[in-house]
Design a protein that fits this description.
By secondary structure, the chain is mostly helical. The protein is built from four helices and no strands. The protein has one domain. Helix 3 runs antiparallel to helix 4.
């Protein structure tokens, strides 16, 4: 009898699809679409544990406070990339208002992308503490408490 080995889910794909860091299969958020209702409850509504591997998401009181640093880094990275794209496509001049157009459009982009950035920052932040476990069915999930 040969045992069929399940393929390892792609790490990058599991990040962008908001999957559990331990098994890369369970959903981290109850609602798949962060934009369906623009309320903080909808954006951050998470199950207590992963439905596949039982990894607890809120590992200690105040655990998600650190996501503000990740969110800040993502926002800076997106702003730098839009700055470079604007510079390559349109350029900046001393005698015109192109820098103000970039500032306004970048601010609008960041406001519209904020629900996605907040979710992505949670997914990335928990990966600092919980790594992928290919043997998640036979091992205990990581807890801090």
């Amino acid at each position: 009898m040969t045992e069929t080995k399940t393929p390892t889910p792609n790490a990058l794909w599991s990040i962008f699809t908001n999957k559990c860091p331990r098994c890369r299969r369970g959903k981290m958020f109850l609602n798949k679409n962060a934009y369906s209702k623009l309320t903080l409850k909808n954006i951050f509504d998470m199950p207590e544990k992963c439905e596949v591997c039982n990894q607890k998401y809120d590992m200690e009181t105040g655990f998600w406070v650190g996501t503000s640093y990740v969110s800040y880094a993502l926002t800076v990275a997106l702003s730098v990339s839009t700055f470079v794209a604007w510079f390559v496509l349109f350029g900046f001049g001393l005698n015109d208002n192109r820098i103000y157009w970039w500032l306004g459009l970048n601010a609008l982009f960041l406001v519209l992308a904020q629900p996605w950035i907040m979710r992505l920052s949670r997914v990335l932040y928990i990966r600092f503490f919980v790594s992928y476990d290919s043997n998640y069915k036979n091992t205990e999930p990581k807890v801090f408490e």
